[in-house]
Amino acid sequence: MEDNNSLGSTIRLLRRQRHLTQEQLAEGICSPITVSRIENGHQMPSKAILDALLSRLHSSVYQLCNV
């Protein structure tokens, strides 16, 4: 069962809302495999990767935390 409140689920939701593939989201940031692992909860991104992914998704850590 998927945890809809997890970081990975949120990144997946934002990516899909912006009609991006994992490859498009990852380009120049990390590998598509890394994005897949993050979305599936198998890997936590570094702060630098998380910030870059969220920037591409037009979001921020503050928005994820509803601050």
Provide tags for this entry.
0% strand; 5 helices; 67 residues; 57% helix; mainly alpha
Shape: globular
Roughly what fraction of the amino acids lie in strands? under 5%
Give the averaged pLDDT, no decimals: 91
Number of helices: 5
Write structural notes for this entry.
The chain has 67 residues and is mainly alpha-helical. The protein is built from 5 helices and no strands. The N and C termini lie far apart (28 Å).
Brief write-up:
The chain has 67 residues and is mainly α.
SSE diagram, text form:
Layout: H1 7-17, H2 22-26, H3 32-39, H4 47-56, H5 61-64
